[in-house]
Amino acid sequence: MSFATKPCMGCGRPIIWALNPTTGKKVPLDAKAIVYDVTHHEGDGDVIVERAINAYVSHFNTCPKANSFSGSKKS
Prior knowledge:
There is one protein chain. By secondary structure, the chain is mostly beta strands. The chain is built from no helices and five strands. It has a three-stranded antiparallel sheet, with no helix packed on it. The protein has a two-stranded antiparallel sheet with strand order 4-5. The chain starts with 5 loop residues before the first strand and ends in a 24-residue tail after the last strand. The mean pLDDT is 82.
């Protein structure tokens, strides 16, 4: 699936603007996020993961300039 992107005004990376249906607010998402889902945990300590399809990460989590746009401060 391909979505239109715009550059982040802080870092310049491509983002997708999505609408959060719960809040009605727009959320910036990383356009090329790779997200993994933990499917189960083996008894010997191994974690089994698989790539989540159509999953995106909020750009507020990855943008080095997120503090400029967010009401809360990143550590």
